[in-house]
Design brief:
The complex is a heterodimer of chains A (509) and B (105). With 509 residues, chain A is of the alpha/beta class. Chain A folds into 2 domains: 3-307 and 399-507, Amidase signature (AS) domain (Amidase signature (AS) enzymes), CATH 3.90.1300.10; 310-376, no CATH class. In chain A, 39% of the residues lie in helices and 12% in strands. Chain A contains 16 helices and 13 strands. In chain A, strand 12 and strand 13 (485-486) form a beta hairpin. The radius of gyration of chain A is 22 Å and the shape is globular. Chain B has 105 residues and is mostly helical. Chain B has a domain at 1-57. Helix content of chain B is 32%, strand content 4%. Chain B contains 3 helices and 2 strands; from the N terminus they run αααββ. Chain B has helices at 16-26, 32-49, 84-88, and strands at 94-95, 98-99. Chain B has a two-stranded antiparallel ribbon. Chain B is flat and about 55 Å long. The chains are: A alpha/beta (509), B mainly alpha (105). Chains A and B meet through helix 9, helix 10, helix 11, helix 12 and helix 13 of A and helix 1 and helix 2 of B.
């Protein structure tokens, strides 16, 4: 089997057995990047050849010596460009950090290194993770490997496109409002946003600190579970990092949906969702029922309030977090300014792109005297109501199932003209961040344009093990899904979806 | 897609005076055109988020953190070496081992 076609776990197994060398593995992916990335632009930076060679030798030796014993030792990985890598440029896809070279590794990166993984490059993203299409990057758009006229989603668009294009077997992304799950859906790959605090944010360049979380992107659920276990865990350098022990993921080979209860918010497959997305989700539901799950529809009345609450909170935190970019310590500086304040204002105006400035302005406004209660506090109160509604649902269900996005990947150049419309593409993902829940997005079908559709498994706090097991069980019955093809052996494909929808919606609630 | 609620009463939230203040808080020097566009977009986004006013939150406590976070303290012991050189390595302008900025007064 070709190296590129293997899952990360398969590749690591072959490296461990000596069937594949670490050098072969890394070179195979570097070759893919050299050949294909001109077309996709998934990477901003590729690791320097010399440093890479050193690391390859070190890892190969370390595996032989028993220093690297993780089940992903020797596997190359791509890292989103808002996660600090010592000695490797980290730009946040912004002119503001164009030449920034971190002097330390993010804790998540340190954990990759300790597991014997090899960082092969830094992936493109929306500037400072603000956007849903990877079009706000200062270093050019990333194109969707399934159809290069379409966006890969965002903000972790580069990480997801890299995995979809076979330019990396797995990647790290970050998710503040859906930034792992929505691009995973658009690119036909699997992505997990862990419970808030599971993965240290130390070294993740902050966007909205109460919502940000690093997570894995991979070819399948099992790869994501393996990578999740490597990066998760308490870190004293992040005061919001959970002290709770990361529970071991059950043997996924035994994963089953039998007896599991699944709730689907009626509103999530309502008017705003594309018909083809709806039908793919409902087909997935029927397949899960066949596999022994009990599925029910329920009403999530807060759905229309999640985007307004999210944007107020996220922009407020962003305006505060991005104050650090003042042209003094690192990053872009306007060299002509004569006074200190003029230098701050011009450096920031010239260094930040349009969407980043828009969010800083909005955040500054909602936090300002006279508006703080009406907007920021109101949003925090709304957040409580949203959390309470989900908490009620989790009393009944093991997992909440939802589309990852209301549509498949839009065409390039069609999203940025109307920011509000773009914000609404996050409608099914942001509540998870507001509530801190873990959630996974994985492919469940392809639309008539040949673009992938993603289904989301949302779990209660700390329930990564449960959703990873349920998603694996679904993956087993879903049949093969790899870049460019989707072949379902389920005869559910032939059922008229409108009928299913009707029965389902009239049935429960 | 959900409908976007617009304010019909024509009342502007972001007038010139408010925008002056926001620009100071945001520390951004916007060009005339940028400022004009930003004001219009903020107006639109704020009208949309006003949807939250439909909710009665009189007796609801704001939820800041979903996890019970407390302050984390530790002894103030030095764990790292002198990192001045590394810290200064990304500085746009430096002099005698210090960050250099334009005149402040």
């Amino acid at each position: 089997m070709e190296i590129i076609g293997m899952t990360a776990l398969e590749l690591a197994e072959k490296i461990k057995n000596g069937e594949v060398t670490v050098k072969d593995a890394v070179e195979a992916y570097i070759k893919q990047i050299e050949e294909k990335d001109g077309q996709y632009n998934a990477f901003i930076t590729v690791a320097e050849k010399e440093k890479l060679e050193q690391r390859i030798a070190e890892v190969q030796q370390g595996i032989a010596d028993g220093k690297y014993r993780s089940n992903l030792a020797g596997v190359p990985i791509a890292v989103k460009d808002n996660i600090c890598t010592k000695g490797m440029k980290t730009t946040c896809a912004s002119k503001m950090l164009e030449g920034f070279v971190p002097t330390y590794d993010a804790t998540a990166v340190t954990k990759l290194e300790e597991a014997g993984m090899i960082v092969i490059g830094k992936t493109n993203m929306d500037e400072f993770a603000m956007g849903s299409t990877t079009e706000t990057s200062a270093f050019g758009v990333t194109r969707n490997p399934w159809n290069t006229d379409h966006v890969p989603g965002g903000s972790s668009g580069g990480s997801c496109a890299a995995v979809a294009a076979g330019e990396a077997p797995m990647a790290l992304g970050s998710d503040t409002g859906g930034s792992i799950r929505q691009p995973a859906s658009y690119c036909g790959v699997t992505g997990l946003k862990p419970t808030y605090g599971r993965v240290s944010r130390m070294g993740l360049i902050a966007y909205a600190s109460s919502l940000d979380q690093i997570g894995p992107v991979g070819k399948n659920v099992e790869d994501c579970a393996a990578l999740y276990q490597i990066i998760a865990g308490h870190d004293e350098k992040d005061s919001t990092s959970l002290k709770k022990t990361v529970e071991k993921i059950d043997d996924l080979a035994m994963a089953s949906l039998r007896g599991k209860t699944i709730g689907i918010p009626k509103e999530y497959i309502g008017e705003g969702t594309d018909d083809e997305v709806k039908s793919a989700i409902l087909k997935a539901v029927m397949i899960m029922e066949d596999a022994g799950a009990r599925v029910e529809f329920f009403s999530l009345k807060m759905v229309d309030y999640v985007i307004p609450a999210y944007y107020i909170i996220a922009c407020a935190e962003a305006s505060s977090n991005l104050e650090r970019f003042d042209g003094v310590k690192y990053g872009y500086r306007n060299m002509e300014a004569e006074g200190l304040h003029e230098m701050y204002k011009l450096s920031r105006a010239e260094g930040f792109g349009e969407e980043v400035k828009r969010r800083i302005l909005l955040g500054s406004f909602v936090l300002s005297a006279g508006y703080y209660d009406a907007y920021y506090i109101k949003a925090l109160k709304t957040k409580r109501l949203i959390k309470e509604e989900f908490d009620e649902a989790f009393k009944k269900y093991d997992c909440i199932l939802a589309p990852a996005a209301p549509t498949t990947a839009p065409k390039l150049g069609t999203s940025l003209s109307d920011p509000l419309q773009m914000y609404l593409s996050d409608i099914y993902t942001v509540a998870v961040n507001l509530c801190g829940f873990p959630a996974l997005s994985m492919p469940c079908g392809v639309d008539s344009k040949g673009l992938p559709i993603g289904v989301q498994f949302i779990g209660d706090l700390f329930n990564e093990n449960k959703i990873l097991n349920m998603a694996t069980a679904y993956e087993k019955v879903r049949e093969d899904f790899s870049c460019g093809k989707f072949s379902s052996k389920n005869n559910r494909d032939k059922e008229p979806v409108q009928n299913i929808l009707k029965i389902k919606q009239e049935g429960e609630v | 897609m959900s409908e976007i609620m617009m304010d019909d009463n024509g009342e502007k939230k972001i007038d010139d005076k408010t925008m002056d203040n926001v620009e100071i808080l945001a520390k951004l020097a916007l060009t005339g055109e940028e400022r004009y566009k930003a004001m219009a977009e903020m107006e639109k986004i704020l009208s949309y988020v006003d949807k939250l006013n439909e909710l009665d939150t009189k007796d609801v406590e704001p939820l800041v953190h979903v996890m019970p976070h407390t302050n984390v303290f530790r002894e103030d012991e030095i764990e790292n070496d002198d990192g001045a050189e590394a810290t200064l390595s990304n500085a746009p302008k430096k002099k005698e081992n210090q960050f250099m900025v334009p005149k402040t007064v």
